[in-house]
Amino acid sequence: MATIPSHTSTTWTGAVSSDWFTAANWSDGVPTATLDATIPGSAPRMPTVTVGTATAKALTINGGATLTLAGGMLDAKGDVSNEGTLTASAGTVRLSGGATQALGGTGSTMLYDLTVGSAGASLGGPVQVQRVLTLNGNLNSGGKLMLLSTPSLSSMVVDAGGKVQGTLAVQRAVAGATAGYRHFSPPVQGATVAQLGTGGSPVTVNSDYNSAPDPGKVKPFPTIFAYDEDRLNNATTASFSGGWVSPGATSDVLTPGQGVTVQTAGSQTVTFTGTAVAAPVTMSGLGNAGLADAGWHLLGNPFLAPLNLADMRTGLQTGGLADAVYVFRPSGTYTGSFDQFVNNVGTGDLADGQLAVGQVFSCATSRRRAPPRSRSRLPCRPRAMPIPFSADPPLMYDPASTCKWPAAVPPMW
């Protein structure tokens, strides 16, 4: 009786085309859930997946080799080792094995969508995600994960039973080309003031600004400010401008859920590095100092996904805040306007009710319903926009309010 050989692996040859699903392009047939696949760098044509589901047990991409996803899905049951190039302009890489899987290597791994199965995964090399990272199980980043952002497409994380474990980098692209004050809030824990300069605009701090009798004359003049509503408690700091404060050092750690305003050039990308924020996030001390200009706070989205503002309305009102959210869009160095989401109706980039990753918003106590002025009191010399928020009891950011499958992550202006 003849013995039929049992193959456990197949190697890409690229003999006839670049189509993954053509058997003649593989040494021992198209990979399956029980058949390992290897792509050598010496093949005359490199594989491409455009439609359908390409399945493999373990997948190895050797140095000099390239696997391209232009659509469809790559479903791996085992480890994905990449010493070459794994790149995607569309489509999903799904890790669906029954045990923890490894992804990455010394090569370049840029994915469009990545889905981690319930068994979890760990990164063995740098991995970049352009759109949606779905976590059915935990992903151990090993400090090698970057969530990318462009003016037209930014990545987000969907927690569907898993979390990002370890350090990751999160980009936020500035869509507007105009230089001006922009409001940022860190989407990770442990991000520092210095990281706000990763887009190329210098970050200058000077705590002398906070106690100077004439802050506009302080040198060097700060380019970054937080806002402390509690300072609006005496004649010296009674106006809205009195709430602006400069951090003491670029090594100061930013607080997820709180916002800062930064003087930046347009068309740049800021990168935050830290760990995913544990949810829920509670902001306390959002009171009203009692003077005429009091009752506004700079707050921000602390999560790795856009916030659904409609789902936040109850939390805002429970915290004593007005049912009104404002997001500033600069039009010049010290000027701009606000998009708003008021009584469940949005304008501009808030028309879809989504608050971008890393985006700051203004909200105030319920007695202050008027939006901030379009040319309003930033820090003394730089006159730009405030951002409102204030209440006791605290506001709680609930991860259930994050958007699960947005058509597009809203831009950062």
Offer a few descriptive terms:
single chain, mainly beta, 2 domains, eleven-stranded mixed beta sheet, eight-stranded parallel beta sheet, 2% helix, elongated
Please tell me about this protein's structure.
Strand 28 and strand 29 (345-346) form a beta hairpin. The longest helix is centred in the C-terminal third of the chain and has 10 residues, at 309-318. The protein is elongated and about 85 Å long. The protein has one helix spanning 309-318; strands at residues 9-11, 36-39, 48-49, 53-56, 59-61, 66-76, 80-82, 85-95, 101-104, 108-116, 121-123, 127-135, 139-140, 145-147, 156-159, 164-165, 167-173, 180-184, 188-189, 224-227, 244-245, 260-264, 269-276, 281-283, 296-300, 307-308, 324-330, 336-342, 345-346, 354-355, 360-364, 395-397. It has two domains: 9-173; 180-401, no CATH class. It is mostly beta strands. Strands 3, 4, 6, 8, 10, 12, 14, 15, 17, 19 and 23 form an eleven-stranded mixed sheet that branches.
Q: What structural class do the secondary elements suggest?
A: mainly beta
**Cα shape:** elongated
Rounded average pLDDT = 86
- Total number of domains: 2
The biggest sheet amounts to: 11 strands, mixed
Strand tally is 32
| Low-confidence sequence ranges | 368-394
Separate helix tally: 1
Q: Gap between N and C termini, in Å? A: 72 Å
* Overall helicity: under 10%
Radius of gyration, CA atoms, in whole angstroms: 25 Å
Measured by DSSP, the beta-strand proportion falls in 35-45%
